[in-house]
Design the sequence.
């Protein structure tokens, strides 16, 4: 299972309270939740769960939150998360600007969001060409992205200490 994320802000209703607490400097509970249990289940079954997020510096408040909380929880559960720095003018070659999920390198779901980062819909792409492009983009992103812990240590060490 692979996820490419390209937005700098996602507006997710179930995250709002935690995000507000993060912004206020309040402690954040990093205990595993349902998604982390799903990751562990896949990992225990021998399946990889991978994610690359293309980020534009400086990080938005939302990305700081996501890296310090959600991503830390995912990595602890066994998800391989990497960061691919970019600029709007210099997007990584071969990496789409739209989010997608790729399952077993044969099932692609392209995600659509509104301008505020709210999920609108997912569209299943089924042609061999669409699937091949998603698989190729995954390989490029994974090969050029920096593992989350290395990225944080080099660029945002304060995000390691949020709790």
Sequence:
């Amino acid at each position: 299972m692979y996820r490419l994320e390209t937005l700098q802000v996602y507006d997710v209703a179930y995250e709002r309270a935690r995000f507000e607490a993060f912004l206020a400097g309040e402690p954040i509970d990093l205990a595993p939740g349902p998604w982390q249990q799903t990751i562990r289940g896949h990992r225990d079954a021998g399946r990889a769960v991978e994610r690359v997020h293309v980020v534009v510096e400086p990080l938005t408040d939302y990305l700081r939150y996501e890296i310090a909380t959600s991503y830390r929880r995912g990595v602890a559960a066994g998800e391989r998360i990497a960061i691919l720095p970019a600029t709007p003018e210099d997007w990584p070659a071969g990496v789409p600007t739209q989010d997608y999920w790729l399952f077993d390198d044969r099932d692609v779901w392209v995600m659509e969001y509104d301008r505020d980062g709210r999920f609108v819909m997912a569209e299943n792409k089924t042609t061999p060409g669409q699937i091949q492009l998603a698989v190729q983009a995954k390989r490029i992103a994974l090969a050029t992205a920096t593992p989350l812990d290395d990225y944080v240590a080099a660029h945002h060490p304060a995000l390691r200490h949020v709790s």
